[in-house]
Structure formats: structure tokens, C-alpha cells
Design goal:
Layout (H helix, E strand, L loop, with lengths): L1 H37 L6 H7 E4 L2 E4 L1 H9 L2 E7 L4 E5 L12 H9 L1 E2 L2 E9 L2 E7 L13 H69 L3 H32 L7 E4 H15 L2 H6 E7 L7 E4 L1 H18 L4 E10 L2 E8 L6 H7 L15 H13 L2 E6 L5 E6 L2
């Protein structure tokens, strides 16, 4: 669970950093484009006026400034306060009017002179200098905004930024979850397919292993057939555990809960478990089942399949780690206001280090600990599914105990 949470946090952090980086790059690009597009190089008005001299009743521009206008593909002219053109350079023929009215000046001061973008400068009390571009690929427009609207836009900018970030993260997470869901479904289907393929040959192996003792009187052959059967049953249990844990991990199957009588269900599970053991195994293990009288008819909502798997795994854990036999007990009792199910044995128990690892919150998501592997992980997953509490301990004298607080 912790690793899964860490992966999700890392992914969200990565998306957040990625989104910020994209927005930052976009901002830089926009600023650069706007700066470049607004950087229209006009010949400076003061330079033109410095290069302009009045000789013999007419204005003459210096060769240096005339060359500069040619280089910049520009034209320039002077208007007096009556709108008359008193000097021009490179001026298109279509613009050489006898007189410019105030309306004309008002128009080209803000926009264009015909199709030519121009800039207007006041160079004296009765003179206007107009500098224009001969190419018409420059966009010029005067924008006007209400100051209140601009302030509103500035106030909204952070909110828009946050909204865009949330939208970007939400879409990214949805896409990630959808992809992960497909991967998980494919994984569960693959595990289910492999499990199904294993069951058929395993059933044949177990069937033949059970027939061998009936058809042979040799003790050695009987002993080997028992080994084959016990290991086959173990493989079958592992396959079932693998299916259950994949469905719990990836959530591809919805485990429905139903209200059941807990004492009746426990008796059925324990009875079936005892009956599945051979005579030799039944003689090695002493089963003890205790249920408080007040809990004989106690009902609880749970998933029978998962609960049965958890109980079977705990019983198998006792068998596997105590092959020479032990006492196995199942107690259902009430402690204060808590309903407790305790499954344990009088066997060898486990070390303090293993107990510490078993009781870690993230144990169900970690690697197996020695021989206590998938079976006990599933017990913890089943407890987490039902939102119960579980703790693994050693018995007072000896043995291994699983205590589940189911209410």
C-alpha cells in the first residue's frame, strides 16, 4: 500500500513539475514572440531632423540619412501646420497629396496612411514628421481597455493558472489510471489463465497419487505417492492464493459481502479442513474449537470466499510449520465490546523479528518473509478488505497465534 501511494505521489509530482515547465516555456515563448514582433525598427526622428537642412528655399536630407531610409525600406515627409508637404524622401506617388486635412492626420496618426504603417512625430510647434514603412506586412492596431477590466483580468490570472493546472493533472491522472487499469486487468486475466491451465494436470496428478496406494502394497511407493499428493495439494493452495491476491491487489473482481452466522461458517470451514486431511495427519493434530455462547447466533456481513481462504491459510500455516503435529485451536469470543477470532497452535512459533515484520502495516505489499509468505499476506489483505484489525503473536507458552478483531 505504501509503495503504491509513493508511486502515485511521485507521478502527481512529476505531472505537476511537467505542467509548470510547459507553462513556463509557453510563457517565455509568448514573451519572446511578442517582443520580436513588437520590435519594428524605425529610423529615429531626431536623426532625420539632424540630417535635414534648409538650403535655398528647400529642405535637403544628408546622404547618410537618405541611405539609412533606403536601407530600412522607409519613406519620410514633413507637414506644416496647414497640412502641406514641405519635404519628402522615398515617398510613394500615391501619398503625394497637395494637402493633408486634420481628418487625414488623425487617421494615420493611429493607424495607417493608406496601406503603409507609419509613425508620427512632433518635431516643432508647426511641423509633423511622418516616417513610414514601404512594406505592408506590419500589423498595427491601437487597443483600448477599461482599466477595471484589466485589473479583473490580472486578478483572474492566478485562478486561471490554477484551473489549467488542475485540469492538466486531472486528465493526466485519468489517463494514467486508465492505462494502469488495462495493465492490471491483463495481468489478472493472465494469472487466471495460467491457474486454469495448471488445475487440469494437477487434478490428474492428485487423482493418480490417491489411486497408487490402493493398487500397490509396497510401503515405499505408498510413501512417495503421499509426498506427491501433499505437494500437489500445496500447489493447488498456492494457485488459489495467487488468484485471490491478484484480484484483491488489482480490484478487478468485486467481492460482495453477505450477512452470515459466523459460528456456523467457522464450523463448516474447520470441518471441511479436517476431513480433507488423511488419517495420519488427523492423528498428528488435535483440533479445539471454542465459541462463546453469546456468539453462537452472531451474524456479521462479510465475503465468505475471502474469509474461508484466510482461515484455511492460517490452518495450513500451522500444518506446514509443525509437520510432527501440534494442537490447533480456534476461539471466537467477546472481549469487552470487541468480537475476537483467534486461530493459533502450540507449535514452534516464530522469531521476534518475523513477528515485527508480519505486524507492519505494509507487510501485505512487501516481499515474503521466510516461509511465512503469500498465505499470511492474504490473511492481512482479507482483514484490510473487511476493515478489521489483525495482530500476529506467539502463544503464552509456545506456538503461533493470529488474533482478528472483527468488530
Amino acid at each position: 500500500m505504501r509503495k503504491s501511494l509513493e508511486r502515485r505521489l511521485q507521478f502527481i509530482l512529476w505531472v505537476l513539475v511537467f505542467a509548470i515547465a510547459i507553462l513556463f516555456v509557453d510563457f517565455i515563448i509568448c514573451i519572446a514572440v511578442m517582443y520580436k514582433s513588437s520590435d519594428i525598427n524605425y529610423t529615429d526622428a531626431s536623426e532625420i531632423m539632424d540630417g535635414l537642412s534648409y538650403n535655398t528655399g528647400e529642405y535637403v536630407l544628408s546622404d547618410e540619412e537618405s541611405t539609412q531610409l533606403q536601407k530600412n525600406n522607409e519613406f519620410a515627409f514633413l507637414l506644416d501646420n496647414n497640412g502641406n508637404i514641405i519635404w519628402y524622401e522615398n515617398m510613394p506617388e500615391s501619398l503625394k497629396k497637395s494637402k493633408y486635412t486634420l481628418q487625414d492626420v488623425a487617421k494615420f496618426t493611429r493607424y495607417y496612411l493608406d496601406d503603409y504603417p507609419v509613425r508620427t512625430y512632433t518635431v516643432s510647434e508647426d511641423r509633423l514628421l511622418i516616417v513610414g514603412k514601404l512594406n505592408s506586412d506590419i500589423w498595427k492596431y491601437t487597443l483600448e481597455y477599461d482599466a477595471n477590466n484589466v485589473l479583473t483580468l490580472l486578478e483572474m490570472t492566478p485562478l486561471l493558472f490554477i484551473f489549467n493546472m488542475i485540469l492538466f493533472i486531472f486528465v493526466s491522472i485519468r489517463m494514467y489510471k486508465s492505462r494502469q487499469r488495462r495493465i492490471e486487468e491483463e495481468r489478472v486475466e493472465w494469472i487466471a489463465g495460467v491457474s486454469h491451465d495448471i488445475r487440469t494436470p494437477l487434478a490428474i496428478i492428485l487423482g493418480n497419487a490417491q489411486m497408487i496406494p490402493k493398487e500397490s502394497s509396497m510401503d515405499e511407493i505408498k510413501r512417495k505417492s503421499e509426498i506427491i499428493e501433499s505437494q500437489g495439494l500445496r500447489i493447488r493452495g498456492l494457485v488459489e492464493n495467487l488468484n485471490i491476491t491478484s484480484k484483491l491487489d488489482f480490484g478487478t473482481k468485486r467481492f460482495e459481502k453477505s450477512k452470515v452466522c459466523l459460528s456456523t461458517l467457522i464450523r463448516k470451514i474447520v470441518s471441511n479442513m479436517i476431513n480433507s486431511l488423511d488419517i495420519d495427519a488427523q492423528s498428528k493434530y488435535d483440533f479445539e474449537l471454542k465459541i462463546d455462547n453469546e456468539l453462537q447466533k452472531y451474524e456479521i456481513s462479510l465475503n465468505e470466499e475471502l474469509f474461508e481462504r484466510a482461515v484455511i491459510n492460517l490452518l495450513n500455516n500451522s500444518f506446514r510449520h509443525n509437520p510432527d503435529g501440534c494442537q490447533v485451536y480456534i476461539n471466537l469470543y467477546k472481549e469487552n465490546k470487541k468480537v475476537v477470532l483467534e486461530i493459533g497452535d502450540s507449535g514452534s512459533g516464530v522469531s521476534a523479528e518475523i513477528l515485527q515484520r508480519l505486524n507492519q502495516n505494509a507487510y501485505a505489499e512487501t516481499k515474503s518473509v521466510g516461509k511465512h509468505g503469500l498465505g499470511l499476506k492474504i490473511v492481512k489483505k482479507v482483514v484490510e478488505f473487511h476493515r478489521w484489525k489483525v495482530i500476529f503473536t506467539n502463544g503464552k507458552n509456545a506456538g503461533f497465534v493470529c488474533r482478528m478483531e472483527i468488530k
